[in-house]
Amino acid sequence: EAQVTQNPRYLITVTGKKLTVTCSQNMNHEYMSWYRQDPGLGLRQIYYSMNVEVTDKGDVPEGYKVSRKEKRNFPLILESPSPNQTSLYFCASSSTGFWEYFGPGTRLLVL
Amino acid sequence: GENVEQHPSTLSVQEGDSAVIKCTYSDSASNYFPWYKQELGKGPQLIIDIRSNVGEKKDQRIAVTLNKTAKHFSLHITETQPEDSAVYFCAATSYNYGQNFVFGPGTRLSVLP
């Protein structure tokens, strides 16, 4: 079954404690992306990747890092989380760059 | 840059009635317009999309119309069913930078039995 998986699904952390949210897809897609979803704002792109070792900033990249060392994985790293990064995060993948598949989401609370 | 507005923010309809959600965009270079359905606790699911070279596209009970002159596009759901209840998002982008979607803020649709 074609799918995008994210872990963890729920995470509570404290300000400044580094964390990583993993994303994996089993469709051999070149394109992957991270979005955050906040009430009334829709989805906003954080970073995207067009292939292994190729990444670029989206609209709200501040405070986030990504890496793409393998085609199937695209982890999102928050090196020093702050309360304004409390949000619902989605990973997406695509063979074309037009986002067809989204993961189930990771709900993050930063205290 | 692109800006996408979406209306209404909430919509309640009786089962069997039609629902219409409208989006407007600002960048005339945008030429790809997808719609997503997000059910509670799940990620967005692509349900239909339209490209600028067509004015309408249908898939069973859902359809999307596009008016490039007015820069708006709409999602139409006919014969609504309770399982249509969800949050719907529109988005806009250009083929040249397809990965940089701009999403609307979403519409919460409730279908009342």
Structure, explained:
By secondary structure, chain A is mainly beta. Chain A has strands at residues 4-7, 10-13, 19-25, 31-38, 42-51, 54-57, 65-66, 76-78, 87-94, 101-102, 106-110. In chain A, the strands form two sheets. In chain A, strands 2, 4, 5, 6, 9, 10 and 11 form a seven-stranded mixed β-sheet that branches. Chain A is globular. With 113 residues, chain B is mainly beta. Chain B contains no helices and eleven strands. In chain B, the strands form two sheets. In chain B, strands 2, 4, 5, 9, 10 and 11 form a six-stranded mixed β-sheet that branches. A five-stranded antiparallel β-sheet of chain B has the order 1-3-8-7-6, with no helix packed on it. Chain B is globular, with a radius of gyration of 13 Å. Chain A binds chain B through residues 4, 31, 33, 40-45, 48, 50, 58-59, 90, 92, 94, 96-105, and chain B through 4, 6, 32, 34, 36, 41-46, 49, 89, 93, 98-101, 103-106.
How is the secondary structure organized here?
The complex is a heterodimer of chains A (111) and B (113).
Chain A: E1 4-7, E2 10-13, E3 19-25, E4 31-38, E5 42-51, E6 54-57, E7 65-66, E8 76-78, E9 87-94, E10 101-102, E11 106-110
Parallel strand pairs in A: 2-11
Antiparallel strand pairs in A: 1-3, 3-8, 4-5, 4-9, 5-6, 7-8, 9-10, 9-11
Chain B: E1 4-7, E2 10-14, E3 19-25, E4 32-38, E5 45-51, E6 56-59, E7 62-67, E8 72-77, E9 86-92, E10 102-103, E11 107-112
Parallel strand pairs in B: 2-11
Antiparallel strand pairs in B: 1-3, 3-8, 4-5, 4-9, 6-7, 7-8, 9-10, 9-11
Poorly predicted regions of chain A: none
Give the CA-CA distance, first to last residue of chain B: 41 Å
Which strand-content bin applies to the residues of chain A? over 45%
Largest interface: A-B, 26 and 22 residues
User: Biggest β-sheet of chain B, characterized?
Assistant: 6 strands, mixed
Backbone CA Rg of chain A: 13 Å
**3D shape of chain B:** globular
Point out poorly predicted stretches of chain B. none
Number of strands of chain A: 11
**End-to-end CA span of chain A:** 36 Å
Average per-residue pLDDT of chain A, rounded, comes to: 94
Radius of gyration of chain B: 13 Å
The structure class of chain B reads: mainly beta
**Assembly state:** heterodimer
